[in-house]
Known about the structure:
Structural class: mainly beta
Shape: globular
Mean pLDDT: 88
Radius of gyration: 16 Å
Order of helices and strands: EEEEEEHEEEEEHEE
Largest sheet: 9 strands, mixed
Number of helices: 2
Helix content: under 10%
Number of strands: 13
Low-confidence stretches: none
Amino acid sequence: AEYMGTPLTLMRxxxxxxxxxxRDGVHEVLLAMKKRGLGVGKFNGPGGKREPQDVSVEAAAxxxxxxxxxxxxxxxxxxxxxVFVFTDRPEWNQVCWIYSSSLWDGEPCETEEMRPxxxxxxxxxxxxxxxxxxxxxxxxxxxxTDQPRKQVWLECTFDNEGAVLASHRSIExxxxxxxxxx
Length: 182
């Protein structure tokens, strides 16, 4: 598969992982304020680049969660794929595999990278998040027990070094389109 002539295999492989819980009857999601690097000053889920030592994309998601907010997620659920294209910074282009979990070991804590905060799903801080989050996050954290959890399959193009969401479109998963295991 390609995007604008670039094979997806040449794009950076990244992860995002969203922890969610129901506390006192309120469904919450853990977001963290990015303190450095790409996305500084924005709330997002923990995540980042797959490193050579990661045996799988899922292992990268777990490692990033441990490094960025100090918890070990368990029972990860694969939730979809985002393709991010930065027209003026192609080195930032990435295929991002999305996970969620409602089970983890440890308590979220601030690190050099991120400052975690629980938000009610009904009151996410979209003004302080990436612009694409407004498109795919509503409904993503549904707790309807009779429905499968929503997946996201989206391609987003950003201009002005990520400051402007220029376009977005839904993408269809390929047959067997799951994160690479190796």
